[in-house]
């Protein structure tokens, strides 16, 4: 009799299996089988064991879950359920009383809140709240596994056989042993360290730099565990609070590490249980979800699946097709291998003088022994670092000494690589003769690799260099000087290391079998190459889909090389002769992938993995020759190859105990190495705690700036902890406070009679508070702002103190805006941290804008809190006093700065101008203390804030620049470009939306000036070592740079008027409304067409030209527009003379208003500089089109009628499709009707014809509706307009929502048109632009009157599906201090809808599905506020019904969201629960 049910959870790295009885009793739950990229074999192994134990005839049901389960379930025709459903279902069996489930898998993290609902048929459990992580936050389980493997794999060797099953078992035994060693090592941790980073790339980068400065592995692992928990709390749990009496459990294999469980429990102040079957919850839940369904399969069916593939994955040509463009040069033939050391027969003397070049990399440690006379290579060695750089170096010395020790006289030692500075400190005896110059040097990697390759071939003009940690790209001038050099930003860190980890995950060797497998693949699957985390996720998906290992290997090579070429190098030009060097390019597969992406012939020279070490030796020889020519004595201070036997005893001490002039800010813990009688200090980011390298230090100009600013602040502030009975205003030292407004804020409230106290400078505590309370996708300065607010909340005295949370909207009469984060930070921080409205001052400020007097805004806010206590006149006086104090402070600072610049210029010094925002440059956490790095290397780094802001007119340099700080940054960049001895250092932060656009402008300016451009992107790194490497490399270029004469006029571009006559207008697809827009142009007699979207050509263009931090809609525009222009050429049309691209614009605050400007730049760079771009302005109600006023009104009339009709037809489609009598009938009808509609718009049909058309359309839709189908839960899609209207951009979200039984409402374009029209009327009125205002008012009246007529035929059919009035939404959030309507864009509308839905004011709606592109400032701000709203509501709700607030945030990027459908499944479940509890009578009529 069949009575058992089997559940399988096919995860990213393992297969979990269980056997249950019909009563859901678990009778068998074996250990998971790790599949190493071959889940089919592991599944067969697990199933065969179950069949052998229970018999196939006794298996009644089989069900699947997990990231790889869907593929197998579909192929085997058995049930599948997403883990968002199976995990809570499984916990209901293994821990039925659990209130909270914390899950971290190999790839996806989740949280589930469980409650029990009593009913007539007994109680049942349900999930009122759940959450998942963002794309950046995924992969914690993989991250932990690969770091453990990196640290301990060398201690656990494995021998493989020919049998795949045996090998799988041996590899699993190895990895489990490694995990055991890692957990045991955590017991040996001696101190807490902060591993920084929001994602696996940055975390790994920080860990590598920690190990490279000599940090102990147990401490690093403990820091990793802490970071995983911090990120889980920030990314998944967010601001949720937990009661200590509630029961919590964990699931997911990572929680086999008890230390991690303890850290999570301590962080959340909860008792957390680890159920016996915590790893099996998903598999158990799959059986529970399946129920008594008869579904089985035969084991032999899996054999065919082991090499299966999915046709939905796009592919590129086989790597082998590019081998013809790969030229690999033969390695030297005469070589003797002694252990790992290669000794070359160079016909030299037996005893010789040599130079050592040592490259301490994150993955490998390399050394070259070169003849000091001619640089011939005597020996070379390359060892895996395995997380132990000191151990690796000692082994290098041991092997060199063993083979050659008696025959060598070491004349110089040069170091490079990520461990180079650390090695130099330890291995150099600084106590030798002070009269001789030390020939022990540290050289940057870019210079070393250039020296190394040019030693072999001077023709090389392009270097592609990829190491374990850093990526570099160097382009040379004809004379051999560096023309352009780049090192990776945060997102490309650790590419080589991450690639090696992925290769090992699928059971291959990075040096041998990986390349063999990759080159055997007949095609190459394409994965997201945005960054290492996204590439990892893409590879995991291929594994889950059952792709053959050969194709997965090819995808790894192609994906990581694609990230290097497309996202790192981007649109930079190449030279004619390219060398590929560094560890990954040792193998042929990566060389072939590089050739595919670049289209170049790639040269692979001998020793290319060791060019860094060779180049270091060359640099040392050059230094020796220079000194000898100048008659200066030199000596080598290397401690000798005997270091191989030296015991380096380590200890920790506070900086103040060891350093005479230690600062009192942090008193950092320092690593102290004892070598005989010598002490060597290593302090990471601590500027004092590092053994002196002998370089004369430069002044720290940032510290000078802050001292001056603090001296002025002291006039108006008191210490935060000073005793006082007076009312205080507490001000966070963040965002605009650090952007030159701090004095103004402090003086303003001081003159109003308050005591003013400030939060301290950012430190670890404030950072961790900020990470906890802020949205995980915000930039780091916004995280810090939340941290400062949370810190001040702890010091808030109820009834006495107020926290000042400024919302800075913009400045000046012109439209100058701050980014959405700065504009709304007061509201975001207030609600995220949980400060009551009565405890905050929340002014909404426009600086120096006559239309929005600042005194009025401050007075209105004070009146809200204090009533009539403050008069407007008193506030005006205080504002004037504050302005005066601000002016005095800035005048003194600018005067001092001018003297500094003038003095350094007079001395002939190169000056590195720090350009960026004050809250990056002046905040040690946000800016990773980069100013201290420059000072420590003797370089003059002067923050631009030390100089008076230039007043250049930049409209024809950076057109339509509307960001307040963006304008300042462009002007400072211009000033730096014009100064012969000034060189830019751009400080930015990861995910800064505005900088993703600004850097296009800045790069163009600096390229025109012919200067190097150093960009340092920080993101909360605990170590700034990686920025030191970039700083030194940039300085090498600056040393030899010859400035060219440029004038301001050289940067200006003529802005020509757009001509439409006799041209073809191309309209990017932005939803079906693009067809209406094209028809409206056709109605005026123009030729217009809608561009194809997301073609293969368009995607390839976007990948190459759009950077990592730039939002997805812009990438679509770039790809689609350029692909369309190229297609015109294919049709014989010259786009430079016969094409116009339509690209609307706005005046901020998001990036949309800059799209057309950057498109022009990209057009110029690609030979399309004469293509016009037509950019109607939202701020001008889209009336700035080069046609007559009558033509504008005529087009607007047709456009509105068409848009209104299209919105209604789209609404009718979504109302009908879930209930249609015949599948597909609604879509067919919609397609036919819209085709007819476009033609009506094009021929300017009259209003009566439109009304008749809509009446007929209503009847047609009702005719295909099946009234017998019960109404389903209704969900609203809102959010960023492009993503919600573009089906490709949102991964066909509507169809997925309908698949899970939901009826969808889509926020229409008409809602946005009404909002922008009203906003434009207000702005025209303030600007006294009466003609434009009247035109917009006419347009408004027309829209309202025609809208009613066109909607009337559908009034009954679409009852309850009306769009929400934006004015009502904005007034509600304004009134309740949720957000401010002056923060323009979609975010206030999204927040308003969510706010009213949460409060129960939208009874017909069962859920909100919020969409936005990855990194979108508007929608991240919206999501942040909505999460605060919903969490606050849930905490105060009195019933289960009220606690169910179905809200889903879907964030889309360059690649598909692999867990989107899993999230929708859980979201739909809550929507049905919401509908059930609120009663079907409010959902709508049948």
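Sequence proposed for the structure above (1486 residues):
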């Amino acid at each position: 009799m069949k009575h058992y049910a089997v559940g399988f959870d096919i995860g990213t790295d393992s297969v979990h299996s269980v056997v249950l009885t019909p009563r859901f009793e678990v009778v068998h739950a074996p250990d998971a089988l790790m599949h190493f990229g071959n889940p089919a074999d592991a599944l067969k192994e697990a199933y065969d064991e179950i069949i052998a134990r229970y018999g196939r005839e006794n298996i009644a049901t089989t069900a699947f879950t997990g990231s790889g389960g869907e593929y197998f379930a579909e192929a085997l025709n058995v049930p599948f359920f997403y883990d968002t459903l199976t995990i809570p279902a499984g916990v209901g069996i293994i821990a039925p009383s659990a209130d909270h489930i914390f899950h971290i898998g190999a790839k996806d993290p989740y949280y589930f809140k469980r409650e029990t609902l009593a009913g007539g048929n007994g109680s049942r459990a349900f999930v009122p709240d759940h959450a998942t992580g963002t794309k950046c936050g995924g992969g914690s389980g993989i991250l932990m596994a690969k770091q453990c493997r990196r640290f301990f794999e060398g201690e656990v060797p494995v021998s493989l056989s020919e049998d795949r099953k045996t090998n799988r078992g041996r590899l699993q035994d190895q990895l489990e042993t490694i995990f055991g060693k890692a957990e045991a090592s955590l017991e040996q941790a001696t101190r807490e360290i902060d591993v920084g980073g929001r994602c696996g790339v940055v975390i790994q980068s920080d860990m590598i730099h920690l190990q490279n400065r000599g940090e102990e592995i147990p401490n690093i692992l403990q820091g990793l565990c802490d970071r995983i928990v911090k990120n889980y709390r920030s990314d998944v749990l967010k601001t949720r609070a937990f009661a200590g009496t509630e029961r919590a459990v964990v699931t997911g294999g990572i929680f086999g590490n008890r230390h991690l469980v303890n850290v999570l429990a301590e962080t959340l102040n909860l008792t957390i249980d680890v159920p016996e079957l915590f790893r099996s919850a998903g598999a158990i839940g799959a059986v529970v979800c399946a129920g008594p369904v008869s579904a089985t399969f035969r084991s032999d069916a899996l054999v065919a699946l082991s090499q299966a593939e999915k046709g939905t994955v796009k592919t590129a040509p086989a790597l082998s097709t590019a081998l013809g463009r790969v030229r690999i040069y033969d390695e030297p033939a005469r070589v003797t291998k002694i252990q790992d050391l290669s000794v070359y027969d160079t016909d030299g003397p037996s005893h010789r003088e040599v130079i050592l070049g040592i490259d301490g990399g994150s993955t490998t440690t390399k050394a070259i022994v070169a003849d000091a006379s001619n640089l011939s290579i005597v020996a070379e060695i390359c060892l895996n670092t395995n997380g132990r750089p000191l151990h690796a170096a000692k082994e290098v010395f041991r092997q060199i000494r063993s083979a050659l020790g008696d025959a060598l006289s070491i004349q110089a030692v040069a170091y490079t690589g990520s461990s180079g500075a650390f090695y130099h400190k330890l291995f150099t005896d600084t106590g030798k003769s002070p009269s001789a110059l030390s020939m022990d040097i540290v050289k940057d990697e870019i210079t070393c690799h250039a020296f190394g390759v040019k030693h072999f071939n001077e023709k090389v003009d392009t270097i592609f260099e990829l190491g374990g940690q850093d990526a570099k790209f160097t382009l040379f001038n004809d004379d051999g000087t560096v023309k352009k050099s780049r090192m990776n930003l945060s997102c490309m860190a650790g590419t080589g290391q991450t690639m090696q980890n992925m290769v090992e995950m699928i059971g291959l060797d990075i040096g041998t079998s990986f390349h063999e497998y990759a080159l055997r693949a007949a095609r190459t699957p394409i994965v997201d190459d945005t960054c290492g985390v996204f590439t990892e996720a893409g590879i995991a998906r291929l594994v889950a889909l059952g792709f053959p290992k050969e194709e997965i290997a090819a995808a790894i090579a192609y994906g990581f090389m694609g990230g290097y070429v497309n996202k790192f190098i981007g649109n930079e030009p190449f030279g004619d002769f390219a060398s590929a060097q560094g560890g990954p390019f040792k193998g042929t597969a990566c060389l072939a992938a590089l050739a595919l992406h670049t289209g170049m012939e790639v040269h692979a020279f001998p020793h290319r993995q060791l060019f860094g070490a060779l180049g270091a030796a060359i640099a040392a020889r050059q230094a020796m020759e220079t000194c000898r020519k100048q008659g200066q004595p030199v000596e080598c201070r290397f401690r000798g190859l005997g270091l191989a036997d030296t015991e380096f005893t380590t200890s920790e001490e506070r900086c103040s105990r060891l350093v005479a002039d230690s600062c009192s800010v942090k008193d950092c813990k320092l690593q102290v190495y004892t070598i005989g009688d010598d002490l060597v200090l290593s302090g990471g980011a601590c500027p004092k705690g590092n053994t002196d390298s002998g370089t004369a230090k430069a002044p720290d100009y940032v510290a000078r700036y802050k001292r001056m600013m603090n001296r002025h602040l002291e006039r108006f502030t008191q210490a935060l902890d000073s005793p006082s009975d007076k009312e205080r205003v507490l001000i966070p030292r963040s965002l605009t406070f650090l952007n030159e407004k701090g004095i103004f804020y402090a003086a303003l409230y001081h003159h109003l009679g308050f005591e003013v106290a400030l939060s301290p400078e950012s430190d670890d505590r404030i950072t961790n508070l900020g990470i906890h309370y802020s949205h995980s996708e915000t930039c780091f300065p916004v995280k810090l702002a939340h941290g400062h607010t949370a810190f001040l909340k702890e010091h808030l005295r109820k009834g006495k103190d107020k926290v000042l949370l400024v919302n800075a909207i913009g400045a000046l009469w012109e439209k100058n805006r701050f980014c959405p984060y700065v504009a709304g930070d007061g509201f975001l921080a207030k609600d995220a941290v949980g400060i009551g409205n009565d405890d905050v001052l929340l002014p909404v400020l426009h600086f120096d804008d006559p239309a929005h007097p600042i005194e009025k805004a401050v007075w209105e806010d004070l009146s809200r809190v204090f009533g009539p206590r403050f008069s407007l006149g008193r506030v005006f006086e205080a504002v004037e006093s504050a302005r005066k104090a601000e002016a005095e402070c800035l005048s003194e600072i600018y005067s001092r700065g001018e003297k500094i610049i003038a003095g350094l210029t007079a001395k002939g010094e190169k000056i590195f101008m720090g350009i960026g925002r004050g809250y990056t440059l002046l905040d040690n956490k946000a800016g990773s203390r980069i100013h201290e790095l420059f000072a420590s290397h003797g370089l003059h780094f002067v923050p631009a804030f030390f100089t008076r802001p230039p007043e250049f007119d930049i409209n024809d340099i950076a057109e339509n620049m509307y960001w307040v700080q963006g304008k300042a940054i462009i002007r400072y960049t211009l000033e730096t470009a014009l100064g012969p001895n000034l060189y830019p250092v751009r400080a930015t932060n990861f995910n800064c939306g505005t900088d993703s656009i600004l850097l296009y402008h800045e790069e163009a300016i600096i390229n025109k000036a012919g200067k190097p451009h150093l960009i340092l992107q920080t993101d909360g790194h605990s170590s700034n070592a990686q920025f030191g490497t970039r700083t030194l490399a940039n300085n090498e270029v600056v040393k030899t740079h010859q400035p060219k004469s440029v004038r301001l006029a050289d940067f200006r571009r003529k802005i020509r008027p757009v001509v439409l006559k006799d041209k073809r207008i191309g309209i990017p697809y932005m939803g079906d409304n693009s067809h209406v827009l094209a028809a409206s142009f056709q109605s005026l007699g123009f030729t217009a067409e809608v561009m194809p979207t997301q073609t293969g050509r368009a995607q390839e263009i976007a990948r190459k030209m759009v950077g990592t931090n730039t939002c997805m809609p812009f990438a679509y525009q770039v790809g689609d527009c350029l692909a369309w222009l190229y297609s015109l050429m294919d049709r014989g049309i010259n786009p430079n003379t016969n094409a116009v691209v339509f690209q609307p614009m706005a005046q901020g605050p998001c990036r949309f208003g800059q799209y057309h400007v950057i498109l022009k730049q990209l057009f110029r760079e690609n030979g399309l500089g004469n293509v016009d771009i037509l950019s109607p302005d939202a701020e001008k109600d889209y009336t700035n089109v080069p046609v007559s006023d009558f033509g504008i009104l005529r087009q607007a009339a047709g456009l509105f009628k068409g848009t209104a009709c299209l919105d209604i037809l789209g609404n009718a489609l979504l109302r009908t499709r879930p209930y249609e009598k015949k599948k597909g009938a609604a879509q067919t009808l919609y397609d036919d009707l819209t085709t007819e509609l476009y033609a009506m718009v094009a021929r300017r049909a009259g209003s009566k014809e439109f009304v008749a058309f809509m009446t007929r359309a209503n009847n047609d839709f009702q005719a295909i509706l099946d009234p017998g189908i019960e109404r389903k839960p209704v969900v609203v899609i809102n959010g960023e307009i492009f993503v919600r209207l573009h089906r490709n951009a949102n991964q066909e979200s509507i169809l997925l929502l309908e698949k899970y039984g939901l009826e969808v409402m889509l926020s229409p374009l008409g809602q946005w048109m009404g909002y922008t029209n009203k906003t434009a009327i207000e702005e025209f009125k303030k600007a006294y632009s009466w003609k434009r205002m009247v035109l917009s008012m006419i347009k408004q009246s027309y829209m309202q009157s025609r809208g009613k007529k066109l909607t009337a035929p559908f009034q009954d059919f679409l009852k309850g599906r009306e769009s929400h009035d934006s004015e009502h939404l904005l007034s509600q959030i304004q009134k309740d201090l949720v957000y401010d309507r002056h923060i323009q864009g979609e975010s206030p509308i999204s927040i308003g809808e969510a706010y009213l839905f949460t409060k129960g004011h939208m009874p017909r709606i069962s859920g909100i599905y919020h969409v936005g592109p990855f990194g979108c400032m508007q929608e991240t701000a919206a999501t942040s506020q909505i999460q605060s709203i919903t969490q606050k509501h849930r905490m105060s709700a009195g019933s289960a019904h009220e606690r169910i607030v179905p809200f889903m945030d879907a964030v889309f990027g360059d690649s598909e969201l692999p867990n989107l459908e899993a999230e929708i499944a859980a979201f739909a479940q809550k929507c049905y629960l919401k509908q059930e509890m609120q009663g079907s009578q409010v959902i709508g009529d049948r």
